[in-house]
Amino acid sequence: MSNIDALFITPRSRLEVYQGLSNDYAAIEPPVWSSLIANYLIKRNYNVRILDAEAENLTHVETAEKILELNPKLAVFMIYGQQPSASTQCMPGGNKTCKKLNELSSNEIKSVVVGTHASALPKQTLEEEPYTYVCQGEGPLTIKNLIDFLDGKIKDVKKIPGLWYFDKDKNLSFNPQAKMFERLDEDLPGQTWKLLDMKKYKAHNWHSFGRLESRNLYASLQTSLGCPFKCTFCCINAPFERNTIRFWSPKHIANQVRLLVEEYNIFNIKIPDEMFVLNPKQVIGVCDEIIKLGYGDKLNFWAYARIDTLEDDEMLKKMQKAGIRWLGLGIESSSKHVRDGVIKGRFDNYDIEGIVKKVRSMGFFVGANYIFGLPDDTLDSMKETLDLSLRINSEWANFYSAMAYPGSQLHVMAKKNSWQLPEDNGGPGWIGYSQHAYECLPLRTEKLKATEVLNFRDQAFSTYFKNADYLSMIDSTFGGNTLSHIKDMTSYNISRKHHKENVKY
Question: Which long-range contacts (CB under 8 A, 24 or more apart) does 131-136 make?
């Protein structure tokens, strides 16, 4: 046994998840949760490493061989992805790697899986996946106590919070979930980047529009945990006890930014929080501290916001000054009725187009997010949403098919209505939750087949990014190189299983 207490592993998933788009258009993101929990353990004198198979471009076999070579006390499989709902689509990659590891090590290297999916379906994960243990919850306390148990410092496995396991009699057992950390500065003191090769990470293509050559210096910086909203299509709160949001202090966040800039020369930074622009006091506090650093004009942040959180013009001015250039806006649907059906709510009386126009006039670029196939969607309402996207004509747009992600209320609804899900018998499995995968299987509705939703989504993507008004705006805003990049992107057609194999969803 080596002296490595825990090895945090990001299995390779990009090729299966994004197909050919993975090469030039998708991001390679630093593993946020690995760096958070690793730093938690480092502060408590544990010896930890991070193995990012995505960044290292390792196959599943090569990853397993590397784990075997390092021989940690505990192999921690961190299954998240580039946003909370992406955990499920990354499960197959972890499964393949861990199966190979078990084969090579004769099951002697103990493993635990952590992530949104595992927290949403811990029993099923333990029963069906190749891991020794499953973590339900945030993970730091579970992993710390599990290391101590394997080391013999903790004698009773029942003292490991949030752990699902088979007891000595092969009975499925679990312990109550660990309490959430409330004082993030003290309890979970930020991320560590020293365990990562930061030169191997790459920003989303749109995040670097106008300067695509700068994509290869990139970081992802968490500033809060959780979300207070209850949108039925979202699974973000699956690892947490309740719907709430907790913040790191503005000074702490600014120190993390300073470290990224001064030690790693990184200016492209994603804020992956489900909702950064939420609490004006917190946002202004963070921006003020970043402004004090003196390089806000060089920074290129992007962060999520809601239509109803963008009213404070003074806050928006501070955000600009602090280097926040891109806003990801969850518009979802043009229809109030459709949004109400998934408890999106709260901005039913807001002028969506007017607010987007305002923030763009203040100098922000907008990545608008739309979802097709929500439960109350019809073909007409989806067309209206596409029309809205074309009128807004934002610098970037994400078009999603509705997915009933495990951990969401939509998953419960789908099960109740016996709507086919990717994990059902005859379905493609967890990879079917990937928006861009060959096996993609969206949620059907009462009025629309899954194939109808997926076909509409793919056509909407092509319609938007080939639209003359959009291309003209891109050319005038970002220049010819970005325009060529967009045209190259739309020339690639991702393959869909139901097209080639006549699958009837």
Answer: 131/77, 131/98, 132/107, 132/165, 133/163, 133/164, 133/165, 134/163, 134/164, 134/165, 135/162, 135/163, 135/164, 136/162, 136/163, 136/164, 136/174, 136/177, 136/239
Q: What residues have CB less than 8 Å from 19, skipping those under 6 apart?
A: 436, 437, 438, 494, 495
CA distances to 172, 292, 398, 458 from 453, rounded to whole Å, are 39, 47, 15, 9
Q: Which residue has the tokens 């891991």?
A: 131
- 203-501 domain in CATH 3.30.420.10? no
pLDDT tens, position by position, 432-475: 999 999 999 999 988 999 999 999 999 999 999 999 999 999 99
The amino acid sitting at 348 is D
β-sheet with 396-401: strand ranges across: 218-220, 268-271, 300-305, 324-332, 365-372, 396-401
Find out whether 22 and 90 touch, Cβ atoms under 8 Å: no
Range list for CATH 3.40.50.2300 in the chain: 6-174
Tokens of 77: 């499989």
Strand partners, 369: 330, 398
Residues of the chain with CATH 3.80.30.20: 203-501
Radius of gyration of the chain (CA): 22
Chain centroid offset of residue 265 CA: 24
Superfamily of domain 6-174: Response regulator (3.40.50.2300)
pLDDT in tens, 153-191: 999 999 999 999 999 999 999 999 999 999 999 999 999
Q: Is 426 exposed, middle or buried (0-12, 13-18, 19+ CB in 10 A)?
A: exposed
461 closest CA partner among 342, 349, 335, 371: 371
Contacts 24+ apart (CB under 8 A), 255-258: 255/190, 256/190, 256/191, 256/221, 257/221, 257/290, 257/293, 257/299, 258/293
